[in-house]
Amino acid sequence: MPEPERSLLDLTVRELLDSVAARTPAPGGGGVAALVTAMAAGLTAMAARFGDGAVAARADELRATAAPLADQDAAAYGGFLEATRRPRDDPDRADAVARARQDTIAVPVVIADVAGEVAGLAADLVLNGNPNLRSDAAAAVHLAAGAAATAAELLAANVKGEQGVAERDRAREIAAAARVLTEQVDRE
């Protein structure tokens, strides 16, 4: 997979927003979902620091996992585009496309996994954490659930034939569970 010239994590917020809006294939939904997951984990960690240090530490770990997935997603999609641009008569094209497609499936599934866990941690903070930070924890639930749903949608778009079906179904289950958490938080 080709690596981006500059990590999305090294951009200013303005540069990141411009990069997302640019007429380029990446960063796209996957990179944004990864960054939103990292932001939701950051909110979760902040809310947890006012009560539960173990949850804060886990949220920090999840943030550290989610953030680089933005670059990995862009690289996976770039690798896929590169593979599909091979000449149709290239005998290695089909294998290259299949390998590259697997990368476009693997990254969103991790984003969904991390986002689902962040949503769960944040939902617990809404119910049991510091009441003064309930709205921050609730925001984290909503952001993480949206990121999980986005990752599931992108993953589904990359599935072809049997390749990636299990991952697609897993991401959809995670997104559905996160959606339930948003409904629970909204009732509080």
Automatic annotation (TrEMBL):
Q: Name one GO molecular function term.
A: catalytic activity
Instruction: Read off the InterPro entries from this record.
Output: Cyclodeamin/CycHdrlase (IPR007044), Formintransfe-cycloase-like_sf (IPR036178)
Which Gene3D superfamilies did the record assign?
Formiminotetrahydrofolate cyclodeaminase monomer, up-and-down helical bundle
Q: Which Pfam families match?
A: FTCD_C
Q: What is this protein called?
A: Formiminotetrahydrofolate cyclodeaminase
Which species is this record about?
Pseudonocardia cypriaca
Q: Which domain of life is it from?
A: Bacteria
Q: Where is the Cyclodeaminase/cyclohydrolase domain?
A: 12-161
